[in-house]
Amino acid sequence: MTIICKIVEITEDRRLRLDLNLPDGLPTGQAELRLTINPLRPTPANPARKPFEGLFGALKDNKSFDGDGTDLQRQWRDEWSE
């Protein structure tokens, strides 16, 4: 199975014309094409909101996560049982 993602513009006449360059490794012959259309919704401009990528490294020097990850998870789960 090969998945191809492409952003297209749906015009007022609601007609979509596909012209795709397929990968070389895709075998020739009959194939089933499945098409799913997911409308893109613009995100509202909010200057107070940071993109997720901007949070990379935010907890780098935080001591809360020092130690073995498995031990930390066990400690957190023990808190839930109280």
List keywords for this structure.
82 residues, elongated, little secondary structure, 15% helix
Outline the structure in words:
15% of the residues lie in helices and 0% in strands. With 82 residues, the protein is largely without helices or strands. The longest helix is centred in the C-terminal third of the chain and has 12 residues, at 69-80. The N and C termini lie far apart (48 Å). The mean pLDDT is 84.
Mean pLDDT: 84
Low-confidence stretches: none
> Could you give the distance between the termini?
48 Å
Which structural class best describes the helix and strand composition? little secondary structure
- Continuous helix count: 1
How many strands in all?
A: 0
| Strand residue percentage | under 5%
* Shape assignment: elongated
The level of helicity is: 10-25%
Give the topology string: H per helix, E per strand.
Answer: H
The Cα radius of gyration reads: 24 Å
**Sheet of most strands:** none
